[in-house]
Amino acid sequence: MPTNFAGGLNQDTRSQIVDLLNANLVNTISLTLAVKQAHWNLKGKGFIGVHELLDDVADRLRESADTMAERAVILGGHAKGTVEIVADKTTLEAYPLELQDIQEHIAHLKERFMEVGNAIREAAEVAEEAGDEDTADLFTEVSRTVDKDAWFIGANAEAA
């Protein structure tokens, strides 16, 4: 591993946490790309509001991804977020490319946000159990943002 910039964590813990950060990084990048896919293609009642919301959501996801990637490097690892790695490692189902209906996009995005939020909360627990409170806090903050964006998106559903 490259240079470590966080004291108090042994090599095994740092390696475990870097892997955990990268696993959540790829899903966050995958989710960001799904959000942009929906942003470009959605049509229907409420279009402009959801269209603009999704740009803001993508920005927050990119910020969260950046924070996770930087933490991996701080711990002496490498951030692994190339398109090739994301395509190979994401646990998210491929986003449907032919969707247009705004309600279908909302449903697909909400489902993915719930999945990513759950995985990030699980990562926070693992980081805490490993003794890395800083990364646990990072994951907790990211999960709050993901949950809030799930709400922002899901509240646009006709059945909300």
UniProtKB/TrEMBL annotation:
Residues annotated as domain Ferritin/DPS: 19-155
KW Zinc (keyword) present: no
Superkingdom of source: Bacteria
Keywords, ordered alphabetically: DNA-binding, Oxidoreductase
Enzyme class: oxidoreductase
Pfam families hit by this protein: Ferritin
PANTHER family in alphabetical order: DNA PROTECTION DURING STARVATION PROTEIN (PTHR42932:SF3), GENERAL STRESS PROTEIN 20U (PTHR42932)
Name under which the protein is recorded: Non-specific DNA-binding protein Dps / Iron-binding protein ferritin-like antioxidant protein
